[in-house]
Amino acid sequence: MINKNIKFILPVLLLSLVFISCSKKDAEPEQKPQFEIVKSNNVPVYDSKSAYTFVEKQVLFGPRNPGSEGHTKTLNYLKSELSKYADNVELQNFTYPGYNETLHLTNIIGRFNPGNKNRVLLCAHWDTRPRAEESKDSSKQNQPILGANDGASGVGVLLEIARILKGKDIDYGVDIVFLDGEDYGKKSDLGNYCLGAKYYAANTGEIKPAFGILLDMVGDKEAFFPKEGQSLKFAPDIVSMIWDMAGQVGAGTFTSAEYPEIYDDHVALNQGGIRTVDIIDLELIGADTPKERRNYWHTNNDTMENISAETLQDVGNVLVNIIYSLKFN
Q: CA–CA separation, 177 vs 175, rounded Å?
């Protein structure tokens, strides 16, 4: 049995809650998203042959592991090449205590529209692995790798993006960053991986990009790019934006399959407050894919023979269409 006074009070309380709820809703209108994709009919053509050449030039310097001659030559090349296109180029130099050595590392940052607070980050690592421990020939396991796919492919795609940005402006800012020291660590020693990404994430300054896209191993002849777990965790909306665009432009290397989390540069960037998605050929990791040719991860077989202009075209098409369809509100 309910008290009659309570019977009177309850409707009043309910009306009050409705009024408060409506008032709150009216007082706090739904905010527009920071950015959106708006269909554009003025997207530049991405030249995968140019991207392929950018990949090839890096590989010609040999292994680019920190401390090597190839590392020094590639640093000079990337600085010079990026300076042709970006409004300004910054070298983010830092040292790191490695395995019985002091590493001298450099993140290379090319800024487009540097004064614009609305920014997007595009990045890839430019160093290569100092040891080929997945090689079946034990005599080669301590040799540095060439890294045509694991390193050079992502940088090549972004150099071509930089060349396009130079010729066709956008109304927001882009930071193209080549990260150093990604592949330094020994097996399972995650503390010594992604050194450049960790340093960059801690030294971005007050203005952080709205989001980031990381490219890693994006050039294989039979590549396919599933949705990676950490990317889905930290930036599901950016994942949707990228893979939706891939469907629109017919980039068949992108698949809707969802794969487990991996540790890559995007983890440090996400932890540093930059929501970042990793576009990566995940089946290569472990050097145990069903296709024998593709088992070259962290081996001496990561060479230009595995790289395809068609795959570089797929990745480039997706990025260019996002860049020139993106509108900040």
A: 6
Range of the domain at 270: 33-328
| CA dist list (Å): 65 to 48, 78, 119, 127 | 26, 15, 30, 5
Q: Are strands 326-328 and 35-37 parallel, antiparallel or unpaired?
A: antiparallel
Q: Tens digits of per-residue pLDDT, 243-293? A: 999 999 999 999 999 999 999 999 999 999 999 999 999 999 999 888 999
CA distances from 108 to 155, 231, 255 (A): 11, 23, 31
Per the domain annotation, does 289 fall within a domain? Answer: yes
Asked whether residue 184 is domain-assigned, the answer is: yes
What pLDDT digit, counting tens, does each position of 59-86 carry? 999 999 999 999 999 999 999 999 999 9
CATH number, residue 180:
3.40.630.10
Residue 83's φ and ψ, nearest 5 degrees, are -65, -20
